[in-house]
Amino acid sequence: MKNQKDSEREIVNVGVDKIEVSDIVMLQATINYTIIYMNNGKQYLSAKTIKSYETLCKKESFLRIHRSYIINSEYLTDYSFVNSYVILSNTMKASISRRCRNQFKMYYVQRKKRMATQK
């Protein structure tokens, strides 16, 4: 049962821990498990597949860039056009699949333009 604080923000249960969705930097699929990387450096191993997290993450600023990776765009710091990977704020790298590459490039260029106009 969710309390007042939980209803104001998205919370996900990972084992006995409750974590805020906005604190998730990246989700990585490993067979039928998902490794959840947090902004404080912690990692959680979940017995759910990455697909089960995909619907939850659509509400926030998450992007599916590979069949093994979902990233939080709030923690995106750089993108390598040549090698096709992203760099996140915790210095982690995640590959971008060929099928997601063009869509991600368009997103990244639009994001850079928005950030430039906000300054």
Percent of residues in beta strands: 35-45%
The profile of the biggest β sheet is: 5 strands, antiparallel
- Outline type: globular
The low-confidence runs, each spanning 5 or more residues with pLDDT under 50, are 1-7
Number of helices: 3
Widest sheet: strand order? 5-4-3-7-6
What distance lies between the first and last C-alpha atoms, to the nearest angstrom?
A: 42 Å
- Total beta-strand segments: 10
Mind telling me the C-alpha Rg? Answer: 15 Å
Which percent bin holds the helix content? Answer: 25-40%
Q: Which structural class fits the helix and strand makeup? A: alpha+beta
Mean pLDDT over the residues? 86
Order of helices and strands: HEEEEEHEEEEEH
Mind explaining what this structure looks like?
The protein has 119 residues and is α+β, with helices and mostly antiparallel strands. The chain is built from 3 helices and 10 strands. The chain has helices spanning 4-8, 50-57, 98-118, and strands at residues 11-14, 17-20, 24-30, 33-38, 43-46, 62-66, 69-72, 76-80, 85-88, 93-95. The strands form 3 sheets. The protein has a 5-stranded antiparallel sheet with strand order 5-4-3-7-6. A hairpin with a 2-residue loop joins strand 1 (11-14) and strand 2. The longest helix is centred in the C-terminal third of the chain and has 21 residues, at 98-118. It is globular. The N and C termini lie far apart (42 Å). 22% of the residues are buried. Mean pLDDT is 86; it is low at 1-7.
